[in-house]
Amino acid sequence: MNKQKGKAKHLIDGTFRYLILLLLALAILVPIAWMVSTAFKTEPQTYYPDPEWIPNPISFESFEKFWGIYDFGKMTLNSLITCVFSTLICVIASCLSGYGITRYEFKGKKTYMGFLLVTQMFPSVMMVVPFYSILTKYHLNNTLTGLIIVYAATNVAFCTWMMVSYFKSIPLELDEAARVDGASAFYTFLRIILPLTLPGIASVSIFTFINGWNEYMYSAVLISKDQFKTLTVGIVGLNTQYQVHWNDLMAASCFSCLPLIIIFVCFQRYFIAGMTSGAVKS
Q1: Is residue 168 pLDDT above 80, yes or no?
Q2: Which of 186, 206, 250, 263 could form a disulfide with 38 if both were Cys (CB 3.0 to 4.6 A apart)?
């Protein structure tokens, strides 16, 4: 009798959990499905009183505007340039810092780690004015170089913490064995230790790239010239004062999601491994 009650309770609990997961999945997938549906509609279809999930007829007009009228190709290139170079800076800086912190004892190491942690406690909006003042002083506002520096500066602290966790997981005996064989410190770092942290490097790269690709506030404030605007700024620009071009907005959003989906699908095991490693290792 107790066994049957236990099975019934287990079945009810399992059904309840799956029901909650299904509702949460629908809450995420339904807006995405509606975004894709709207992207293939004409502008009059977006204002139909009876919504249509499958447009009839299917229109590619919004995607043609993406490359033609709106010139989003240039904005996409700007986003790629800023994200790739800021990711490269973060990876190099975090790897060097992570290796130095875990392999060497130096004065102020704990203070340095504490400082990195403190920098993550301030909301991004507080940093807009300081960043703008500094970039203006050095004539880097309205340039992709200035935006790359800002993106790298806002992500490098967290990336360093993640890489520190990875380097801590690699035994110090490997460094000692390399030194016994006559390898220099830099050779040991580059040829022996760094290849073992590839999952962490992939995780840091994906994290930084996604943050830069989705970032809007800094790019909107620090860039005013049309030739340097990023994709997120261009997408928001479709929401005008007098009209919202919903089909064009959804088409641009679909295109913006594609690079992130491709990157995450290809490297998700490294990303998940890196995030969980950074969460549990001391």
Answers
A1: yes
A2: 250
